[in-house]
Inverse folding.
């Protein structure tokens, strides 16, 4: 599961490489090889955010609420938001580009409530509510829980995927507490009723690939249909949001592939490396997605320039690994500082 956590963060960095780096551009029928590859990679990686919530739901569904964890999460978010802002101010001599005045300052000062990091904000909300979700899950039998999950998927995924021209009850493309709760319930069901996982793990992996690629193929299909009947081209990217049914199904299948994988003994050093990296994944996200950095590091690596060349794929892999490794090192330093602070306070 920790390997999946690391892999999911690499996928998230790849998503930001493609998006913030200006690689994707508009989804069109006629695109060059690299842009088609970029949209295919996007389809394979976009479920990574869902996977993080599924991992959390899988473990939290059998856990107890810990106020200390909320405090540490909040402190970690403040640390990255404030420290990076201070360093940026020193390096640039206060050259902030605040076009909207105080509205640009609020997310930096209050990153959780100011939605500096949307995932962190929604995740903390989910953590605050998970004890109540667990109470409900424990009180329901299998049939009722399954019924609620099917209803939630229908409202928050199927509706938006297949009826995008209607007005859904809520749709921030999966970037909201409603979708996180839906994913939580799915993960809790998987943890509670593992006997329902009847397919082989390799079939789940195949379904992950097929469902992910369906987002790309169906988007192309809508663009072809648009040439014939018109007014459908605007929905070509509708299969890519986190709560798209195809992305949701793909992320669940990849998660199930890991759940059904038997643990194998690994060299002690490899286990330590994986656990060390997994500990720092949230820090990697907070570092490279800081408001002041999220569009800067793609420029430092000249992402958009390289994206049209034969070096696109190796450059993407190298950049993602570099960002990940730097982020892991930075978060290790952060954990050392937090450890010193907590030890002093405990004396």
């Amino acid at each position: 599961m920790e390997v999946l956590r690391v892999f999911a963060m690499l996928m998230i960095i790849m998503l930001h490489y493609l998006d913030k780096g200006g690689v994707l551009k508009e989804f069109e029928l006629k695109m060059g090889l690299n842009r088609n590859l970029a949209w295919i990679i996007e389809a394979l990686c976009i479920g990574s955010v869902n996977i993080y919530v599924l991992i959390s739901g899988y473990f939290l569904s059998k856990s107890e609420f810990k106020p200390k964890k909320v405090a540490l999460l909040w402190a970690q978010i403040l640390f990255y938001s404030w420290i990076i802002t201070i360093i940026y101010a020193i390096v640039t001599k206060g050259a902030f580009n605040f076009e909207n005045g105080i509205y640009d300052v609020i997310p930096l000062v209050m990153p959780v409530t100011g939605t500096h990091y949307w995932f962190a904000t929604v995740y903390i909300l989910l953590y605050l509510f998970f004890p109540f979700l667990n109470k409900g899950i424990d009180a329901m039998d299998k049939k009722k829980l399954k019924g609620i999950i099917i209803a939630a998927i229908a409202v928050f995924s199927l509706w938006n995927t297949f009826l995008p021209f209607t007005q859904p009850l809520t749709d921030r493309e999966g970037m909201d507490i409603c979708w996180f709760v839906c994913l939580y319930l799915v993960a809790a069901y998987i943890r509670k009723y593992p006997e329902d996982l009847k397919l082989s793990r390799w079939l789940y992996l195949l379904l992950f690939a097929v469902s992910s690629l369906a987002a790309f193929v169906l988007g192309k299909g809508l663009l072809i249909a648009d040439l014939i009947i018109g007014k459908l081209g605007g929905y070509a990217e509708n299969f890519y949001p986190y709560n798209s049914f195809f992305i949701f199904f793909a992320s669940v299948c990849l998660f199930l592939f890991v759940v059904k994988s038997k643990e194998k003994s690994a060299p002690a050093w490899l286990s330590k490396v994986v656990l060390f990296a997994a500990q720092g994944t949230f820090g990697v996200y907070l570092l490279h997605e800081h408001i002041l950095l999220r569009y800067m590091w793609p420029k430092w690596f000249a992402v958009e320039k390289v994206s049209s060349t034969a070096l696109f794929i190796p450059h993407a892999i190298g950049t993602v690994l570099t960002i990940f490794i730097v982020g892991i090192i930075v978060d290790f330093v952060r954990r050392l500082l937090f450890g010193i602070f907590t030890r002093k306070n405990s004396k």
